[in-house]
């Protein structure tokens, strides 16, 4: 998700300005010249200035291109299939985490975790022969470590664990 | 002092600490050896587990896992030419060239041996100068702390391998994140948008897990899987290491020193230490033409360097609460949680805990030799595990771990959000480490800044009146102006720029 500097820079200007304004309207501490408003004001202004500088390409010459170690002959990986939706795959992990937030209390930890594992594994190219056992076993292992040994209150939901 | 030392020994010689240390070592070795899983990520995922351990055992796991992971990143670097952690990237080519020449044992042995030596040199940097520095730091007022924090933040932007403007922007973003919540000078809800979950502020640990672990899984979604490791039989791994130590003792020492210095600088960690040391080794070598063809000299120096930086990164963390690198940033979070608040008083009031930390570093680096050799021998089997089996487990650990921090689901939302933020920042050249530093140090910077402003009654002069404050201020402002001066310099002399960029 490589965006042009002008886009990220403008976003920072907007964010900085919003933060500075948000800080400015905070109520001051009575009888005190500085309160909770000063720091956001400084940070917001700084951020906006940086954003402006980025929009105008200042400091761009310092950026080093990512150093990729070239693969050897015969080892070259096949180019990944490029389609518009391909880049959206990157959003899968955060989406699954949000799914966990909303589903874990209802479905319970084991089922939610199994779905997460199966989807992540398949998205990374695993065949069902690997993904299915993994999804069946790993939630129990994690539950054993976190739920049983470390006593994290993981939601039981529809399928309580045997222990 | 002897009494403190004995107390420290008593602290670490419990079964809990010993088991935690060995388990964390194995964990660090495995995570470090898997390409795409960095030492920082290993440490971040460990944090939820440390909640349930005693303070010393918690620190033991972090010390052991981070030291081991930095070494074990060398293994796939040497065998596959794919560094396991970014800290091994500098010399992965060189190590792989040695493997092709049939010297895999020598390359990996140098990795283990000089990592351990470097780690122990790093501990010395923690043991010797830190207590006297703590004496000086005891007399610091908020003015000094303000400048020190600013200097720390500026260093992080100077050493970033990216545009300094973007690094500063990243730092501001981190500071902005730390503004959220009611823990501010006025005690009013700030940037909470009416959400009660945000009243307590954004916890640094879920943010770090998101930035380092979730963002990594996101990147894995779009990158091809690394090839499996060819199985091979290894000869003696430690053979010839003593000879190398004698032959290259000067390079080793130089690597240690450079690693220590870079580790102490906030924001610059093991990967930077390895790059600088490898470049230095080549520059000062008597046989620079051999570099890149499988020559062990650079490996010695860079391997000694990156592990030295791990321990020395704890120096500013323990003294001032300013993290020397991203791993130390996580460690600071754990220290606060365990009631070992960083600061100079730690060295006077909790001296036995300090000695325990030194001892654990030394033990971890000694333990690295046998465990590291074992790891090299079984690496081929561990690296057989496909990414599609590891990443789902990482995801589960992210979800459960971030939930465990406060036993509420908001932690999981934070992890997801910071995963996206970290991914987008990295993809666009904004250094994530700078933001992390901002998040971790934000509260401290604000406190020092606002308290100083109140004390000075609106005047700027007291910020420069005390001698130490003046020196720190000069350094911080210099660091702020440095990129500007370089930029102006390049504008004034365009021909050199062309020559420099085309190299």
Summary of the model, kept short:
The complex is a heterodimer of chains A (163) and B (503). Helices cover 56% and strands 0% of the residues of chain A.
Features:
heterodimer, A: 163 residues, mainly alpha, 56% helix, flat, B: 503 residues, 25 helices, 74% helix, globular, disordered C terminus
Layout of helices and strands, plus pairs?
The complex is a heterodimer of chains A (163) and B (503).
Chain A: H1 5-24, H2 38-55, H3 92-107, H4 109-123, H5 128-149
Helix pairs in contact in A: 1-2, 3-4, 4-5
Chain B: H1 2-12, H2 15-33, H3 39-50, H4 55-72, H5 74-80, H6 92-100, H7 104-127, H8 130-137, H9 142-158, H10 164-179, H11 204-220, H12 241-247, H13 249-264, H14 270-284, H15 296-312, H16 314-320, H17 326-337, H18 345-349, H19 351-382, H20 387-406, H21 410-427, H22 432-456, H23 462-465, H24 467-492, H25 494-501
Describe what this molecule looks like in 3D.
The complex is a heterodimer of chains A (163) and B (503). Chain A contains five helices and no strands. Chain A is mostly helical and 163 residues long. In chain A, helix 4 (109-123) packs antiparallel against helix 5. The longest helix of chain A has 22 residues, at 128-149. Mean pLDDT of chain A is 80; it is low at 66-79. Chain B has helices at 2-12, 15-33, 39-50, 55-72, 74-80, 92-100, 104-127, 130-137, 142-158, 164-179, 204-220, 241-247, 249-264, 270-284, 296-312, 314-320, 326-337, 345-349, 351-382, 387-406, 410-427, 432-456, 462-465, 467-492, 494-501. At the A-B interface, helix 1, helix 2, helix 3, helix 4 and helix 5 of A face helix 10, helix 11, helix 20, helix 21 and helix 22 of B.
């Amino acid at each position: 998700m490589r965006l042009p500097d002008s886009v990220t820079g403008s976003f920072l200007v907007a964010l900085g300005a919003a933060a500075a304004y948000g800080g400015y309207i905070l109520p001051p501490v009575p009888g005190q010249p500085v309160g909770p408003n000063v720091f956001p004001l400084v940070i917001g202004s700084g951020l906006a200035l940086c954003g402006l500088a980025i929009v105008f390409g200042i400091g761009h010459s310092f950026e080093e291109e990512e150093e990729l170690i070239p693969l050897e002959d015969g080892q070259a990986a096949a180019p990944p299939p490029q389609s518009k939706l391909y880049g959206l795959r990157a959003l899968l992990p955060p989406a699954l985490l949000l799914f966990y937030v909303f589903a874990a209390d209802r479905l319970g930890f084991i089922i939610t975790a199994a779905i997460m594992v199966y989807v992540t594994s398949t998205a990374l190219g695993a065949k069902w022969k690997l993904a299915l056992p993994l999804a069946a076993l790993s939630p129990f292992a994690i539950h054993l470590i976190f739920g049983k040994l470390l006593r994290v209150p993981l939601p039981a939901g529809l399928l309580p664990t045997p222990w | 002092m002897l009494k403190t030392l004995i107390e420290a020994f008593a602290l670490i010689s419990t079964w809990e600490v010993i088991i935690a240390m060995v388990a964390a070592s194995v964990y660090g070795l495995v995570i470090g050896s898997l390409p795409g899983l960095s030492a920082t990520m290993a440490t971040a995922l460990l944090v939820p587990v440390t909640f349930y351990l005693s303070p010393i055992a918690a620190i033991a796991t972090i010390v052991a896992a981070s030291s081991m992971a930095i070494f074990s990143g060398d293994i796939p670097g040497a065998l596959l030419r794919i560094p396991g952690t970014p800290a091994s990237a500098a010399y992965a080519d060189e190590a792989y060239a040695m493997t092709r020449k049939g010297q895999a044992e020598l390359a990996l042995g140098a990795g283990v041996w000089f990592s351990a030596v470097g780690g122990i040199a790093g501990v010395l940097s923690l043991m010797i100068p830190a207590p006297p520095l703590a004496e000086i730091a005891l007399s610091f007022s908020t003015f000094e702390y303000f400048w020190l924090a600013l200097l720390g933040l500026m260093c992080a932007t100077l050493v970033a391998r990216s545009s300094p403007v973007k690094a500063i922007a990243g730092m501001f973003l981190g500071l902005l994140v730390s503004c959220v919540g009611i823990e501010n000078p006025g005690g009013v809800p700030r940037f909470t948008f009416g959400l009660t979950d945000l009243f307590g502020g954004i916890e640094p640990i879920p943010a770090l897990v998101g930035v380092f672990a979730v963002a990594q899984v996101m990147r894995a979604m779009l990158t091809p899987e690394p090839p499996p490791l060819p199985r091979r039989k290894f000869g003696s791994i430690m053979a010839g290491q003593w000879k190398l130590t004698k032959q290259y003792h000067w390079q080793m020492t130089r690597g240690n020193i450079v690693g220590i210095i870079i580790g102490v600088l906030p924001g610059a960690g093991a990967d930077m230490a390895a790059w600088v040391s490898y470049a230095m080794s080549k520059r000062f070598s008597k046989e620079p033409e051999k570099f890149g063809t499988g020559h062990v000299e650079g490996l010695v120096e860079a391997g000694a360097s990156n592990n030295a930086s791990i321990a020395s990164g704890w120096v500013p963390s323990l003294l001032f609460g300013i993290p020397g690198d991203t791993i130390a940033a996580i460690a600071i979070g754990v220290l606060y949680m365990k009631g070992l608040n960083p600061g100079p008083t730690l060295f006077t009031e909790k001296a036995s805990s300090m000695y325990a930390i030194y001892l654990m570093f030394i033990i971890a680096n000694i333990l690295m030799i046998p465990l590291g050799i074992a790891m090299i021998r079984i690496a081929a089997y561990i690296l057989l595990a496909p990414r599609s089996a590891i990443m789902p487990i990482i995801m589960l650990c992210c979800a459960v771990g971030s939930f465990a921090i406060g036993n509420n689901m908001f932690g999981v939302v934070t992890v997801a959000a910071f995963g996206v933020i970290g991914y987008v920042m990295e993809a666009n050249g904004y250094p994530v480490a700078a933001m992390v530093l901002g998040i971790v140090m934000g509260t401290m910077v604000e406190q020092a800044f606002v308290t100083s402003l109140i004390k000075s009654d609106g005047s700027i002069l007291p910020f420069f009146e005390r001698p130490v404050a003046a020196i720190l201020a000069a350094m911080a402002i210099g660091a702020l102006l440095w990129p500007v001066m370089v930029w102006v310099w390049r504008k004034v002399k365009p021909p050199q720029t062309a020559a420099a960029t085309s190299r």
